[in-house]
Design a protein that fits this description.
The protein is mostly helical. Helices cover 79% and strands 0% of the residues. The chain has one domain (33-212, 261-433): MFS general substrate transporter like domains (Growth Hormone, Chain: A). Helix 1 runs parallel beside helix 13, helix 2 crosses helix 12 (249-280) and helix 3 runs parallel beside helix 5.
């Protein structure tokens, strides 16, 4: 993928952050940078993941008019994706730990890319629901695979930055979608928007299979970089039974936080285009710029949130204090989102939403990093899967509720109120369940 003007600033920030990290952590020593190629692959996979899931949300106003969906039916279509995503997260997390990320990630991206393309043949709410179910199952593999890959390829002190970088791909995908999808749909029809974006996954797969192996098995990795990746407290290669993860407070801290905050992000993804259409009168040919602005800021938030906790750790802060301070800053930054439902000015609303989405992505980068902080790498995929399932269940509940609420009232006010307080509540629960982010003992 070529660097566009839209994502040039986030990419420059990525490079600056990586260079600063290398200098701070390795003064006078160069250990190699192959691990950042792996991070780049994770970034592009996450970008494609979000392009594919965003197509429906962008086309929703047109499809709803053309195919006669009600708000409730659209809520059910989104809920179907969330239901499959919940199941898929649980299954895919276990698959990544059992078969490894090379095979597991390949399976996931083939499944979701085929499902994305099959949207083109749907002609009813049921047909779109079936395609969304397949998409949800496959896309659930992205984050368990990516977080597990980071835990394998990066030392603990670099993981939040690496996660922040690849997680920013979500925002780049959300930027590329409104740039490309309206153009494709207006030129060749909405069916081709699903076909062409779905095909991107197969291109990525070629590079993944050519590039990825575990660090210990990789022929290109230098001994110095391998030693650096494995620096810190050594982790024994011992399998953690999947069911034995549930009794631990650390598992529930992550899962409950995902359950509370993930639905807010799903709301942004699936209802922002409809909100901009119904509340501010934006049509398909005009909706691109506001969405691009929102997700450019989200990109900056993802990288900035990952960088901040790493910066605080370099200043001598503990992992616990650095992560939670960063998450508290992000949680506070979300609270003004309530006022987006009270303004009639488009760009004030866009500014408030941009701040909230940036804060969510900074929060998310650190929340994912908590898993690698508290769990051995052999369990990371499964724990991320459990948390992702919880987040998808929360999203499923909110999607159905949003459909009924908007059908009954036509107002987004209550949804924005929920978004404004969710992160502070989630952080409180994390503090109660994991006050010291204590690593899981065997």
């Amino acid at each position: 993928m070529k660097l566009t003007k839209t994502n040039a600033m986030p990419s420059a920030l990525v490079l600056a952050a990586v260079e600063e990290q290398e200098l701070a952590l390795n003064p006078g020593q160069k250990v190699g940078g192959y691990r950042w190629r792996i991070c780049a692959l994770l970034f592009f996979a996450t970008t494609i993941n979000y392009v594919d899931r965003q197509v429906l949300g962008i086309l929703a106003p047109q499809l709803q008019e053309d195919l006669g969906w009600t708000e409730i039916e659209y809520g059910y279509i989104v809920t179907t994706f969330q239901f499959a995503y919940a199941i898929g997260f649980l299954l895919m997390g276990n698959i990544m730990d059992k078969f490894g990320t090379r095979k597991g990630f390949s399976f996931a991206i083939v499944l979701w890319s085929l499902a994305a393309m099959l949207h083109a043949v749907a002609r009813s709410a049921f047909g779109f629901g079936a395609a969304r179910f397949g998409l949800g199952l496959g896309e659930a593999g992205n984050f368990p695979a990516a977080i597990k890959t980071v835990s394998e390829w990066f030392p603990k002190k670099e993981r939040s930055l690496a996660i922040g970088i690849f997680n920013s791909g979500a925002n780049v995908g959300a930027i590329l979608a409104p740039l490309s999808v309206p153009f494709i749909a207006l030129q060749w029809g909405w069916e081709w928007a699903f076909i062409l974006t779905g095909a991107l996954g197969f291109i990525w797969l070629i590079f993944w299979l050519k590039t990825y192996k575990r660090p210990e098995e990789h022929p290109t990795l230098t001994k110095d970089e391998l030693a650096y990746i494995q620096s810190g407290v050594p982790e024994k290669e011992k399998k953690v039974p999947w069911l034995k993860l549930f009794p631990h407070r650390q598992t529930w801290a992550f899962a409950v936080a995902k359950f509370i905050t993930d639905p807010v992000w799903w709301f942004y993804l699936y209802w922002l285009p409809k909100y901009l259409n119904t509340s501010h009168g934006l049509t398909l040919d005009k909706i691109g710029l506001p969405l691009i602005v929102i997700y450019v800021f989200s990109d900056l938030g993802s990288i900035g949130g990952g960088w901040l906790s790493s910066f605080l750790m370099r200043k001598g802060w503990s992992v616990n204090l650095a992560r939670k301070t960063t998450m508290f800053v992000c949680a506070l930054a979300v609270t003004p989102i309530f006022f987006a439902s009270q303004t009639s000015d488009l760009w004030i609303a866009v500014g408030l939403i941009s701040l909230a989405t940036a804060a969510h992505q900074g929060w998310s980068a650190n929340l994912f990093t908590l898993v690698s902080d508290m769990f051995p790498k052999q369990a990371v995929g499964s724990v991320v899967g459990i948390g992702g399932m919880a987040g998808a269940i929360g999203g499923m509940i909110v999607a159905t509720a949003a459909g009924y609420l908007l059908s009954a009232t036509g107002s987004y006010m209550l949804l924005f109120i929920i978004a404004s307080v969710s992160y502070l509540l989630a952080l409180l629960i994390i503090q109660l369940l994991a006050p010291k982010l204590a690593p899981l003992k065997a």
